[in-house]
Amino acid sequence: MESNKNIVVESVEDSVYEDQSIGVELTKKDINIMAFRSLFLQASFNYERMQGCGWLYGLLPSLQKIHTNKNDLRRSMKGHLGFFNTHPFLVTFVMGIILAMERSKQDPTSINNTKIAVGAPLGGIGDAMFWLTLLPICGGIGASMALQGSIMGAVFFIILFNVVHLSLRFGLAHFAYKMGVNAIPLIKSNTKKVAHAASIVGLTVIGALVATYVRLVTTVEITAGEALVKIQDDVIDKLMPAFFPLMYTLLMYTLVKKGWSPLKLIAFTMVFGVAGKFAGIL
Amino acid sequence: MEITLIQSLMLGILAFFAGLDLFNGLTHFHRPVVLGPLVGLILGDFQTGIIIGGSLELVWMGLAPLAGAQPPNVIIGTIVGTAFAITTGVEATQAIAVAVPFAVAVQMGITFMFSLSSFLMSKADKYAEDVNCRGIDMINYGAMTLLGTFYFLWAFLPIYFGAEHAKGFVEMLPEDLMSGLGVAGGMMPAVGFAILMKIMMKNNYIPYFIIGFIAAAWLEMPVIAIAAGATAIALIDFMKKPEVAVSTQKEEFEDGI
User: Fold this and answer.
1) Which of A26, A82, B52, B77 is the most buried if burial means most Cβ atoms within 10 Å?
2) Beta-carbon pairs below 8 A across chains A and B
3) Counted domains in chain A
4) In chain B, where are the structural domains located?
5) Cβ of A157 under 8 Å from any chain B Cβ?
6) How does residue A24 score in pLDDT terms, banded at 50, 70 and 90?
């Protein structure tokens, strides 16, 4: 099969971990440290990588234990610094799975595809669970007690909210890690298949994320005789929604391949955004 | 009632930590129902703090940060609003009216910071290249300190100098530049995706990228549905393979992912 051939070629050109032996067992304490550090997932949040650097911060102590080979640790760190965004309450579920994959020394690309494939869809689930369910329930009860002048409203709110929040955060971390570890023998013996499957789901999700996360619309309007044509509403959105986000992403992709540094691309984007605003087209 | 320098500083420090809690920690002690009483405690009127906090909670409950639409900042809204209500004795609704310009300005300021801190990421790349784990930690701690300090200022200035005077700061903000940076912030994830794609995109995966884009842009499907569909496609690919025992592997594989 053609796809099979490609996989073989990929694994040669891809960065593969030098040390292929299964990483050291992580203790309950390691997982708890990871779950605690996951509270700072958005510490260095920014629009380019979003939670990328905070995500690496959460994994780092465990990665140092798993990758005793310095080159492998470097590869792993660089991979985890890429764009990442998931729901901040459910992140430990992704972390647990990813640490199990790191232990089994899957390719960094495969790990990153899995991370995105699992992490991105959790956004919608987390919103529904926390912003639309838990917070209104806790806040509603807390506020009604507070309006009667009772401090118990605040106490009730903070306790109920965090019992659910923290038990889910720490519980998911252990659950996902165990689940991932149980699958290690399987993914270890099917590395190429896992990589291929992860790439399929990962890149499909990236295609979806380009359409949802990148926001770029034009305010240009054309007056043709009597008719006023709003380019964005009347033309772009009807023919191809998210046309500009896709074009801009492909432009960035081309420039990255030409060797532009992220720094240069960020500066370019800032100038583009501000200039577009001043020119009245964005 | 006058607010002393010490009280203003304490409210600033409260804003520092509550501001961090909005994105990090997430214990939600930054919600009005908790923050109101804390402001009351600092200003010596616990009871009013509780009640104002309760009313502000109901106001902000309808303003969840869904789908990227940022509501006026809840922390500055609550701290400035409650402080104003306690010192002047006005109703919660009037206090909100005073606090909202600051809460909106802070939200804009945060957008601005999230755009600018994209530049920090090249520093992080460098630390990863050098396997400098301490450096990665410091970037995260440093960014939090910056964000907290920003909150500190936006709580301290209006409260210490009075909302009327502090409004001058809000008006001084260059609006076009700020909203231009907001536009740039919206475009910025394209850079992150481009770098990802450089690593992950192989020609034989382009069709999947297109499918994902179509599902999100035209069909407006939720990401979870798109991921589920992609998983099905990945499974079809598995089952095509002629190996024996594929079906059992497939099941176990699902557990693994």
Assistant:
1) B52
2) 421
3) 2
4) 5-187, 201-256
5) yes
6) very high
3-class secondary structure, B65: coil
Of B114, B122, B227, the CB nearest to A263: B122
State the average pLDDT for chain A. Answer: 90
Alpha-carbon Rg of chain B, whole angstroms? 24
Question: Do residues A101 and A177 both lie within one domain?
Answer: yes
- For residue B139, give the chain A residue with the closest CA: A44
Per-residue pLDDT band at A271 (split at 50, 70, 90): very high
Domain that holds residue A268: 214-279
Per the DSSP assignment, residues forming a β-bridge with A229 are A222
Interface of A with B in 205-224 (CB under 8 A): 205-216
Interchain proximity B114–A274, CB inside 8 Å = no
* In a domain? residue A134: no
Which spans in chain B are helix H? 5-23, 32-43, 46-61, 74-88, 92-116, 120-129, 133-161, 163-172, 175-187, 189-200, 206-217, 223-240, 246-256
pLDDT (tens digit, 9 = 90+) per residue, A139-172?
999 999 999 999 999 999 999 999 999 999 999 9
Is A128 among the domain residues? Answer: no
Q: How many angstroms separate the CA atoms of B110 and B112, rounded?
A: 5
Residue with tokens 């806040």: A139
Whether A247 maps to a domain, the answer reads yes
User: Which tokens sit at B192?
Assistant: 């992150």
Q: Assess if residue A33 is contained within a domain.
A: yes
- Do residues B117 and A45 touch, judged by C-beta distance below 8 A? yes
Q: Are residues A170 and A234 in the same domain?
A: no
Last residue of a domain, one of A148, A175, A209: A209
What is the pLDDT confidence band of residue B66, given thresholds at 50, 70 and 90?
low
List the end-to-end C-alpha distance of chain A, in Å, as a whole number.
Answer: 47
Q: pLDDT tens digits for B192-229? A: 999 999 888 889 999 999 999 999 999 999 999 999 99
Is the CB of residue B154 less than 8 Å from the CB of residue B15? yes
Q: How many residues does chain B have?
A: 257
Residue A88, SS3 per DSSP: coil
DSSP H or E run through A97: helix A91-103
**Contact A45/B46, CB-based, under 8 Å?**
no
Helix B189-200 vs helix A243-257: crossing angle, to nearest 10: 60
Segment A119-144, tens digit of pLDDT: 999 988 898 888 888 998 999 999 99
* Residues A200, A76 share a domain: yes
The CA distance from A133 to A136, in Å, is: 6
**CA–CA gap between residue A194 and residue B148 (Å, rounded):** 42
Q: Indicate the residue type of A266.
A: I
Q: Exposed e or buried b for every residue in A82-101, given b needs 16+ CB within 10 A?
A: bbbbbbbbbbbbbbbbbbbb
Query: Per-residue DSSP letters for B194-206?
Result: HHHHHHH--GGGH
Cβ atoms < 10 Å from Cβ of A29: 9
